Give the backbone structure.
Amino acid sequence: QVQLVESGGGVVQPGESLRLSCAASGSIFSINAMSWYRQAPGKERELVAGIASGGVTNYADSVKGRFTISRDNAKNTAYLQMNSLKPEDTAVYYCNAVIMRLGDLRTFNTWGRGTQVTVSS
C-alpha cells in the first residue's frame, strides 16, 4: 500500500507565501510524475503544477511566475512554494503521484486527502 500526505496549508493574507509538502510513504519502488491540483468551492479540480521524475516542470498559466514545484526524490516528497498569493488561489490543494509499488511493480495513480489554503484579508 502507498499513500500521500499533504501538509502546509493555512490562512494567509494576499501577497503572502505558503509552502506545501507532499510526502509519499509505503512500499515504494519508484515515483514517476508528481503533481499538485486544487479545487475551489463549486469548481472543477484543476492542475496547478507538475514535475516529472527527471525534474521537468509544467504550470497552469494562472500560477506561472508565482508558484514553484520541486521534489526531493530521496525523501519521496514534493513541494509547492506559493508566493504572491491571491484570494483566487483559495482552494483545497491535492497532491497526486504515479507510484510503482515494490514487489509486483504495479503502478498506482495516488491522491492525497488535500490541504486547505485560504487567502483572505
Q: What stands out?
A: The two ends are 41 Å apart (CA to CA).
